What we know:
The protein is 45% helix and 21% strand. The protein is an alpha/beta fold. Strands 2-1-3-4-5 form a five-stranded parallel beta sheet, sandwiched between helices.
Amino acid sequence: MLQGTHLLIVDDERTTRLSLSEIFTLRGAIVSMAADGQEALVKIAEAEYDLIILDIKMPGASGLQVLDAVQKKSPATIVILLTAHATVDSAITALRQGAFDYILKPAQPRSIIEVVERGL
């Protein structure tokens, strides 16, 4: 199901980025990574993605700022937020801004895979 899917993984935690990249690459996805919100904005301006996994709290630009940019440039792109700093308000804001789903860290890889597959 993920064969040839273009994913962008945006997280300031290196381990999270690398783990998710490996998981989805093994499933056939074409994966790009960004270490912070500013790098994500550059990548989004340069390429199209089918789905973006996006941390909320990052240096440079927040996940919600990146989500807003994605919605303006490519509203069909599916965005899944992944965060350790969850609040009801941030979840509501994210979903109202167009996020497909909101996952709390630490999340099991199987849970993330299931949400990605549902989103696609």
